[in-house]
Amino acid sequence: MKSWPDKIKKNFSFKNKSSLTSACEINLEAVSRQLDIERKAMESGANNLPASDSVMPNSAEREVQSYFENRMANINRLVNEGLSVRNTSITDTNLDDERAQINNHTEHTKLTVSSLMAREFRSLKQLKNDLDGLQNEFSEFKEDNELDRTPHYPDSQILYFALVLLFWLLESAGNGYFFAEGSDLGLLGGIGQAIIIAAINISVSFFLMGWLFRYINHSRWLLKIGAVFSLLCYLCFIFGFNLLVAHYRDFFADQPEIAGSLALQRFLQSPFHLSEFNSWMLFCMGMLFAVFSFIDGYKRDDAYPGYGKLDRRLQVLMEDYEDHRDDIVEQIEDVRHEFLSKLEEMKQGVMLKHTRLVHLVEDKQAFVAEYEQGIANFIVAANTLIYQYRDINSSHRLSPPPTYFSQDWQSKHEYKVRGAHDDIELVEQQKTLFKGFPAYCQQRTNEIEKLYVSFLNQLQMIDPEFILSKPEAEKDGNG
Q1: How much of the chain, in percent, has pLDDT values that exceed 70?
Q2: What is the pTM of this model?
Q3: 450 CB-side CA count, 13 A
């Protein structure tokens, strides 16, 4: 039997720190002092206790045993609690969940793409039919009217409407000045009548004659003749109207109440007899603004009647169609790239989860090993202190020590550990899933890519001239 100083160990600890680590640590010298082993051994030995024929340990040894039984019961409780937590974490770290999530994500993406295609393609087909119909109408219009050029008209008609508005304001102001002499309200009173006169003079020139005169360019001679005739009628009307206004201005200064009837009477009898120079100025100004408005109205659209309007309708419908088509492509691209991006995140998550599972299992194995080492250390520590007691007791007694002094102590309690299985089968199963994940993810990716190709094919059927833009094509290649 070795002496107790050779058996004593000051600290028992495990290299991996856990909730057991501090509970498994033991300082034998401190425990020896705490249980007062040396004094009790000397006193018992001096009294030759326990008796030489004793077969059961005395109270001093039982106190040591009880101390370590409590310590072992404590770490047994801690290990069962720790294993419960670890086994729950291992169970939750299951790659089957990731496969289910990827499958759900794939099916959701497929449903989103299919629904978008079914919904948006109906309106896109309708727009394409309308566009094709209008393009045919445009081609027929060019053919019927013998046009071999593209339409020429300003990008915006705002400038032309702004100019006619300016002409109207200027003529109204000029007319107001000339009519101010006969109005009780002066310039403001003259402007009231001037606005109406200017509106008639300019609107007829801009809206009516600017549109009618374009028929001078028509392919049909009858319409050309009609345009010439309408121009002559217009010139007669605008000349007579402005001359009548000048006569009205002559009488308005002196007899504003009956100026209208007097002006009409003199206009019919002697149309070129104006008594004042300002009246001739009013006539010239009216004619000038009428001509400007006519030119402005003529140039605000293509010279061939209806050609510019039809082309604008075609351009608007084409923009609507292309915007709608590009919006569908963008939506599909967004869904597709969102799927690929999320799938990549899931793949990274699977890798991290697999690594975590391996670490959890390793930690559990180390945790169980630490517990087993702790139990073994407590048994050794208990026997070390018991042999310390026995050695001191033997050295102070006169009678022989009991025969059991040469026997090691073993705990009669069974400390059960729940959930200490090695998880090898689970790890192998998850390892198999982990190895198959790249192929599984590629399979799901192929399903989305197949649907995306189907989308492009259907779009190509609706619009054979559609070509995926270069940035999108490059992005697809990278994807």
Answers
A1: 86
A2: 0.61
A3: 8
